[in-house]
Amino acid sequence: MEMIDQLSSTLVRILIGSVYPLALRQSLYFRLLSSHFSWPKGCVRCQLEFAPVVMEALRQSDSMHRQIAWLGFYELNLSRKIVSLARTGGILVDVGANIGYFTCLWTGLGTNNLVYAFEPSPDVCSMLRRNIEVNALQDRVKAFEFALGHESGTAMFDPCSEQESGWGGLMTKTSPNAFLVNVRRLDEMLSADVTVDVLKIDTEGADTWVLFGAERLLRAKQIKHVFFERNESRMAQLGIKPGEAERFLSDCGYRVSSLGASTGNELWATRADS
């Protein structure tokens, strides 16, 4: 019976991986697969759709990781934008890097592409480093086990869930599972002669703080593209008001627009003079 289940799962994975366009593949996954199959049986390494790299360190309980295992991608709109910019090349700063999906995409699409990856959760950062090693990207990726924010020091980090690696974030209050993490400002991490091609932020509510900590880089136009999210419920917990990030970026000379996702909470900023 177990062998039959494995063959069935393998067949479904092959079939779903042959579906194009990718938006249809994604729709089929959410409508049909996600409620019937948990993890593709026999899946040890997952080949990504957009680059010749694999994800080996994946958590089977994690909904995002399951999408990667079944589809070869997640966050389709953002993936396409990152991929198009990666082909030109340069530096990606991946804040809230999780297991390194975007980090590996970026470096997998250009031999001269570099990444600064930030992931404060020790457990998740170990998975990030494993995926970097599996793809032999250590010489082009610098992984940091701390958070980025608006001021340096320490802050409480709550993983929020043992099953979901992407739900954790900075907190202003203590909670039973929270622990202290180090926090740095991006302005402290990069010198005045570095140009960042893409700054990708996914920090469950603290994206605005990350931008505040990159004010020098932003005002000097050392960052070409910024991708970030609007998570208003988590922002409220941190005392961040809706629209603060957008207003700040506009004041720094950037245009902000929606990335095109149905929720309108995925945002893209580009230099107004470009």
CATH class of the largest domain: Alpha Beta
- Assembly classification: single chain
Look at the structure and name the CATH superfamily of the largest domain. Answer: Vaccinia Virus protein VP39
| CATH-assigned fold name of the largest domain | Rossmann fold
Number of domains: 2
Measured as a percent range, the helix fraction is 25-40%
What would CATH call the architecture of the largest domain? Answer: 3-Layer(aba) Sandwich
Shape descriptor: globular
State the secondary-structure class: alpha/beta
What does this 3D model show about the protein?
With 274 residues, this protein is α/β, with parallel strands linked by helices. It has 2 domains: 2-71, no CATH class; 76-271, 3-Layer(aba) Sandwich (Rossmann fold). The chain has 11 helices and 13 strands. The protein has a 7-stranded mixed β-sheet, with helices on both faces. Strands 6-9-7-8 form a 4-stranded mixed β-sheet. A two-stranded antiparallel ribbon has the order 1-2. The longest helix is centred in the first third of the chain and has 16 residues, at 2-17. It is globular. The N and C termini lie far apart (59 Å).
